[in-house]
Each structure stands twice: as C-alpha cells, then as structure tokens.
Amino acid sequence: MAYRRTEQIEARLADNRQRILRAARQLIADGGFQEAQVVAVAHAAGVATGTIYRYFPSGADLFAEVLRIICQRELDVVSSIARTGGSAAERLAAAVRAFSSRALRARRLAYAIIVEPVDPEIDEVRLEYRRAQWRVFESIIADGIALEEFPPQNARASAGCLVGALLEGLVAPLSQNAPVGDESEGAVVEAVVDFVLRGVSWKGENR
Amino acid sequence: MAYRRTEQIEARLADNRQRILRAARQLIADGGFQEAQVVAVAHAAGVATGTIYRYFPSGADLFAEVLRIICQRELDVVSSIARTGGSAAERLAAAVRAFSSRALRARRLAYAIIVEPVDPEIDEVRLEYRRAQWRVFESIIADGIALEEFPPQNARASAGCLVGALLEGLVAPLSQNAPVGDESEGAVVEAVVDFVLRGVSWKGENR
Amino acid sequence: MAYRRTEQIEARLADNRQRILRAARQLIADGGFQEAQVVAVAHAAGVATGTIYRYFPSGADLFAEVLRIICQRELDVVSSIARTGGSAAERLAAAVRAFSSRALRARRLAYAIIVEPVDPEIDEVRLEYRRAQWRVFESIIADGIALEEFPPQNARASAGCLVGALLEGLVAPLSQNAPVGDESEGAVVEAVVDFVLRGVSWKGENR
Amino acid sequence: MAYRRTEQIEARLADNRQRILRAARQLIADGGFQEAQVVAVAHAAGVATGTIYRYFPSGADLFAEVLRIICQRELDVVSSIARTGGSAAERLAAAVRAFSSRALRARRLAYAIIVEPVDPEIDEVRLEYRRAQWRVFESIIADGIALEEFPPQNARASAGCLVGALLEGLVAPLSQNAPVGDESEGAVVEAVVDFVLRGVSWKGENR
DNA sequence: TATGAATGAGAATTCATTCAT
DNA sequence: GATGAATGAATTCTCATTCAT
What we know:
Tetracycline Repressor, domain 2, DNA-binding, elongated, 2 domains
C-alpha cells in the first residue's frame, strides 16, 4: 500500500520538531552552546540522534534555528511596545525596560544569545537579530528627532550605542556574576534607562 | 667549553616567544579563536608543536596571554588619556576616541577580544579587561559628578553602558562588515562620542 | 517504526564489548600493556577508536577491566579448590597446582598480569588481586595451624611467601623463556609444591 | 694544537658519568622509573640533556646501567655473606636477612628494581639480576643437600621459590603500603626467614 | 665537548555525522 | 521514518632524541 502522509503523521512530525527545538533551547539556557551538543539535545528531546538530522541539515542549523526563534520573540515584544502611543522618550523607556526585564529573567540564555557565539553560521543569526534590534530603536529615535523631542543625531549610531549599553550594562555583568554594586537589579535597570535616555536627548547646561 | 646563555641566545628565545605570540595574535585576528589551534600557531610561527609547550603550559594559556597583552596595551592607552588634564567631558571624549580609533584599525581582532569566548580560562581574562575598562570610565564619570560637571548618577552603571555603547556602536558592526550607513568611520565615531557624552551629562529641555 | 533493542542488537553490543575485551586481552598477552594502546585494541577488535569509548570511559578503564576479569577467574578457580575437602596440606597442594598449571598455559599474559604495571589505576587492580590471593592461601594455612597440621606461624606472611614463591618460581622465569633446567614443567611445578608445603610445615631433624 | 685527552679531562668525564648515574638512581629511588625522565636526570645531575647522550646511547641504556650497578652491589653483599662459614641453614638465613634489611631500607628503590619494569631493555637487566640471585641461593641449597643438611630437592626451583618469597613477602607489600599485620618489620622478616628455611629443610611429622 | 632549545612522532580523547536495521 | 551504535577526523599534549652554537 502506498505511503500516505496523513494528518496524524504530519502532527507527529511537527511535534518532533518542536520537541527538538525546545530541548535545544533548554540546554542552551542551562549551559550555553558549549553544553548543547547534538547527542545531548536528542537525549533531552527523547528522540534519537539521527532524528535530529531528519529535521535539521546539521547541528549548527538546529542551533541557528533556536536562536532565530528566541530572538524573533524578543524582537516582537520589544517592537510591539515600541509602536505603542506616547512620546518617543516614553516609548524608548518602555522598550528598554521590556528588554531588560526579560533578559534578567533568563540570564544564562540571554548571555548565550547575545554574547556567546560558537559557530559562524550561528553568529550570523545573532547578528541579524542585533541589526533588527537596532532598527527598532532607530525608528523610535528617528521619530523623536522628527518631532524635535530629540536633538539631531545619527539615529542608527545612537541605536547601536543604545543596544550596546543595554547588553553591556545589563546582560554581560549580570550573567557573569560580576556585581554592579549594592543596588538591586531594578536600580541598575533604571540607571541604564537614564543613561540611554540622556544619550539620545537634548543636552543641558551644567547646573 | 661551557654553554653560555649569550645575549644572542636570549634574543633568539625572546624572539621565539614573540613569534609564537605574534603568530597566535595574527591567527586570532584572521579567524578568531576558532581558527587559532596550537598546531596552526606552531606552523604560523615556524616552530614545532612541542615548542609551543616550552613557552606556554597549554594552548589556553598561550591564548590567554595573547589576550592579556592586547588588552593591557589598549587599557594603558585609554587610561593614560583618561588621566590627562581637561574637563571630565573632554577626557571622556578623548578616551572614547582613542579606544575607537584603535579598535577600528583591527576589527576582527577587536571582535575576537571583546566578544568571542572559547575557553573559560580565556574568558576570564576578557572579563577582567572589561572590568578594568569599566573602572577607567567610572573614575572619569565620578570625577565629573563630583565637579557637578555631570549630574548625579550610578557611575558604574553608566560606565558599563558607555563601554557597551562603544563595543556595540563601533566594534561589533564594523568588524562584521555591517555598514552603519554612508557615513565615514570618523562620523560614526563622532556620533558615538556624542551619544555617550549626552549619556552622562545633564539633560536639557526640548528646544 | 520505532527502534527496538532486539535480542539480536543486544547480542551485537555484548559481542562488541567482548571483542574489545578479547582484543585487549590478546594484545596484552602478546606484548604486555606496553603494546596495548587504545588505537591498537580498536584495530584488533575491528572497531573504530571512538567505539572503545562507548564501552569504556577511558583506555585505562578498559585495561583495568581486562585485568579484573582475568584475575577474578583465576581467583575463582583457586579459591574453589581451596574450599574442597582434605587436609590443609592437600588443599594447599591442589590450589598451588591449579594456579601453576593455568599460569603455565598463558605465560606472557600471566607475566603482564602479575608483574607488569603501567598505570596506577591498573596497578590498583593488580594489587587487589594479589591481596585476594594472599587471603585464599592465608585461610588454608590458618586452618592447618588450628588443626596442628602446620606449626604456629605468621599465616599472612607465609601466604605472602607462598604467593611469591609461586610467582617467581613459575611465572617469571617461564614467561621470560628462562629455562629452569632440563626438567619438564611438571617437575618444576612439583618442586614448587614441595617447597611451599615444606615452607608451611613442621620442620624435621636432619636425617 | 692537537687535542689531548689529559688525565684532567678523563677525570671530568668520569665525574660526569658518575653524576648522571647517581642522579638517575636518586630519581628512581624517589619516584620510580616513571619519574625518571631523561630531562629530569640531566637537570638533577647538573648537566645538559644532550650530555646524557654523550655517555649513554639512550635513556634506556642509562637506566639499564643504573639497574645493573645497584643490582650488582646487592648481589655482591648477599653472595659474600653466602660464602661465609657456618652451616647451609645459617648461611641461608644470613643472606636472607641481609637482603631483607637492605631492601627495607630503600623500599621505593627496591620496588622499582624488582617489580617496576618500564622497558624491555631494562627488564632484561632485571631478569639477569634475578637469575644471579637464584644462583647464589641455589649454591647454598646445593651445598646443604650435599651435606645432607637439606633433603634432596630441585635446588634451582627452590632458589626461585626462595627469591619469590623474599620479593613478595617483603618488598612488594611493604613498598605498596599494604600492611602485613600489626607486626613490626623485624617480625615479618623473621617470619619470612622461617618460611624459607622450612621450605628447604627436612619435613617433620605432625606433633 | 657541552649545551639545552627545538623537534615531531605518537598517544588519548571528543563529538558531529552516517547508515544498517 | 526512526533508531542509536559506530565512525574517524581533529585536537591536545608528552618526551626521547637531535643538532646548531
């Protein structure tokens, strides 16, 4: 009898794919890309090693896909906030806070996504994500400039600085257990928000 | 006749060590830590594999040493500028410009140093370097706050943001051949300088 | 269809393990631990190097396991004989003969097991085996002392001497192709039996 | 001017040779053949690595020579005692005690010499030494048989057993930190002496 | 002759990928 | 399609021996 790709089979396939991706994500979140080896992912997903290669051309592709999914979700959250009403400064602050709070909730994962590269192919995805992040912030900044809420500036460069400030100011030190001082995390987030808001804003006189 | 460790021999030994370090540095600059394997370094340095181990306890130690040297040099340059006279803002701008111009000269290397970890031992060095960078900028900011040149702020957090802004704003995109726009590099540097200066400064009113 | 670990597959796995152990044993028997390297074992077993590591955590573990198996078998034979009925002297003689005849059948191997250490981990197994051997003979001697079949003596020290006499009297010279004289092996065995029996027995007068 | 091998030069050469041999001996005594690497010997002897190769064709030859010297000395001591007056039993006991006390004084060395092989070439020397030891004891036993002090027996086999009993009874367990009981070393030596004397003597009746 | 830095073959181990079942 | 044992190239590190100075 001929082979039929029934709905049931389709469902099982999709399910397997999901389980693999989820397992990989979990492993990355726990131990970074370093710990996420193909065999380990297979084991965690409850499938055989070879099965991974039915769904992904290679281990690198799998991890790139994981990264892509996570990044996309983050980006969606941040950019939806960015589209909310309010002044540019308000939208910027909200976006920064959203990014921060999410990153702080899953530090090891955030570190792996943002800082820990392993493979050029994976790095490529990471970079794409960063560019997308830049664009989200760039558009808010550009809006602010147009409205004269922010001074004229290279919006793209400022967006880059902003993203960098977020990453370094929040993710890197926290994920590394490098204390930033006695402040609670919330205070650090606010300090970062202040910094980046000043960074894009009109400069005052000494007072 | 007894063997003498003549100056010539000393020179050869020192030279070998230098050649190994330089070869390692070059390989890292070209292909990151990924490409920098002990055998490859030996080959590039024109020595045998075993020779590497006469000068360094392990491959990781060699690469950590490379990183340490490069970072120290960068740090020295930036911190010596940070100690020069002038207002806090002037010193900050000078330090940022020095950092930037150097990083732009060796992008792949800067990327490897700053972003690409490989080994916990190496990562440790990288992290120390970052903390040192933070401290340099933190002290300038603290000075500025004391002089009321800058507003009250979490100097350490601001320093972190500043370092992040530098890394992301300059190193990461440039080293990845991701164009930041049509501007020349110099313009990007100035945009970054503007951003971070605003980031630490008094905030003005909309105008 | 789901993968089933069928009996056939189980058999193949067990067979592989056996083949690796047997290949290792053979290599040790031929050239001692010196010649028994992981790659050589893999080759001899007809498997890839990596396969060895599916069955054993490390090369040392493999070789320790080989040693353990061989030693255990020898010990079982000798100690089962030691538990047979008869006078202490009869049991001792029987145990010594059993040990000897087996050792003579595989000299190089016996030598490797008994004399040739390579690795602390392997040495540990060898040592345990010797201690177990001591205990077997010690208990027979202690029985003989209790029954006044043997004179009072340090049973443990005597057991050590006995084991040593066996090893040196039989294994070492024979395994090294050092002829012990014109006698057939059987005669040597009997000479050793005589020696150790006298060694534990009442001493007579000159006659 | 022509090169002259003056007495002074001869002396220096002999001195170097001695220093190398002594250093090697010391290293073997401290850490066994395992620790005695050519470079380490050179360092300990205060000469260059290459110098070793002026005096010995290879590392193995050096260590074999060390073994030869130590063994010869032991043999000389034991065999000179064996030639002293007294009954065969007295001479045997004296030789065994001499051997034992010397071995106990330098256990690690004794272990290395007797038990720890490393290299076939070195092993060869060890074996020769054992055969010489056998012969020393064999001749005493043969004398005892001729005088009817000892019963007829295979003198060579008995000598082998005797050597084995000594090695296993004294050297192996002690050097391995395997306690032989609560007895002091002296008691163990005496137990071994008793065993081997009984081993070569007339057997009595149960009493 | 003496020196000791350099050599490089060799040994152990890892892990992405394949393929017989 | 799924399985997971098997593969083996790749990598690190060691140490006896050589040879330019």
